[in-house]
Amino acid sequence: MTSRLCMVMAIPVLLLCLVNCSQPAWSATSQTYDFKVFLGKDEIGRQRFDVSSEGERIQVRVEAQFKVTFLYITVYTYRHTNVETWEAACLREIRAETDDNGDSFFVNGISRNGRLYVSTQDGDWSGDGCIKTFAYWNAEWITGERLLNSQTGELQPVSIRVVGEETIPVLGVQTRTTHRRIVTDKFAVDLWYDLNGRWVALQSTSKKGDPLRYVLQ
Question: pLDDT band for position 207 (50/70/90)?
Fold first, then answer.
């Protein structure tokens, strides 16, 4: 369950308290995306995204905390914090720390002269162009053939497609949404956005095949 579960963090995830619900989610001055997270039928924790914007500059703060128990015994824990700065729809800076059931990870990155310089527990690398993370909170930014995993710091090959329109329950209301899917060599993530562009749901699977769901609060 470890890598599959935590990569969704990049985690993943989200959302409510929009400044103006009639606008696309990414144009608001500030937003809070707050989800309960379920593994199978069991609630295992929460993940929260705080997004603030000023012009083209956007800062995202992410906090996730999970705990899986079996017969009242904790068998798995996960904590992730991440601060990202974006400008002109490209990642400019990232500071992330993760404790994945006792295994520690960090990702520090900053953009200079058109290149993103990244340090991780496994070493350093740099890349040019408009590098993006798994920015689930903004469907328009999830583009390209590779996305930066905010837990491991690796650029992962991805396939991204629109599945179609679906009606799903959101905060107790049947809501028309657009269903998108991201597939990597290690996991797949399904994402739903309402017709205003708000991120309203996420689903993936654990390594054991249990459904992992984000339920909006």
Answer: confident
